[in-house]
Design a protein that fits this description.
- It is built from 6 helices and 2 strands, in the order ααααββαα.
- By secondary structure, the chain is mainly alpha-helical.
- It has a single domain, classed as Arc Repressor Mutant, subunit A.
- Strands 1-2 form a two-stranded antiparallel ribbon.
- α3 packs across α4.
- The protein is globular, with a radius of gyration of 18 Å.
């Protein structure tokens, strides 16, 4: 792609947006003692989901090892607990503890306020177009994975 190409600019802006959102997310979670990546793991388990590390990795589309690091940190913090997995003895199911559920409710409240503020000046029509465009791009990328 040429640097001046509109499609290239969209990808470039998307990368910048992703980094900016990750930074804001890390900043907003700092007082809670977790990272944006750990927050993402908690989201997959909220409110009452029980998943193994490989299942979380598949949904998160990252390595099992990366998820294991996040899970270990959240287990150490008392935000997650392990449960027997009837399908696999060596891969326990992971779930939020009551403390983890409470923390995630706090995070969701904060997220809702931040998203409302971020999108406050974006027209609903533009939001719908953006969402459809991003869904189409993701669908196209995922269709090449299989």
């Amino acid at each position: 792609m040429r640097e001046g190409d509109n499609a290239y600019q969209i990808i470039w802006l998307t990368r910048r947006l992703f980094r900016a959102l990750a930074q804001k997310s890390d900043e907003s979670l700092q007082d809670l003692g977790i990272s944006a990546a750990e927050r993402a793991v908690m989201e997959f388990l909220h409110p009452d989901e029980r998943l193994s590390v490989p299942e979380i990795a598949e949904r998160y589309q990252v390595s099992r090892q990366h998820v294991q690091v996040m899970v270990n940190s959240l287990l150490d913090a008392g935000l997650l607990a392990t449960h027997k997995n009837p399908r696999h003895k060596r891969s326990p199911l992971i779930a939020l503890t009551e403390r983890g559920k409470g923390m995630f409710r706090t995070i969701k409240t904060r997220d809702s306020k931040a998203v409302r503020k971020l999108f406050s000046k974006v027209a609903e029509k533009d939001r719908q177009i953006t969402r459809k465009t991003l869904e189409s791009l993701l669908e196209e990328l995922n269709s090449h994975d299989h």
